[in-house]
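S.,

Sequence below, as promised.
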Amino acid sequence: MHRKPCGILNVAGYYNALLALTAHAVGEGFLALAHKEMVIVQDSVEQLLPELNAAPLPSIAKWVSKTER
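The prediction came back faster than expected:
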């Protein structure tokens, strides 16, 4: 719903199950691959923050419009 980068700090693999779920959702057609790829995942702050700062704004259409809410 916004055009800001999103990051997951996956320390010691804590979010591996969530990442597997999103991969499964893509495979089943419930989540677009482009949306999944908008989330930056790293296991250290030193890796994550520079990637978030350099992340391009998404250029894909939203899947929900304001009139549908």
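The radius of gyration is 13 Å.

Coffee later?
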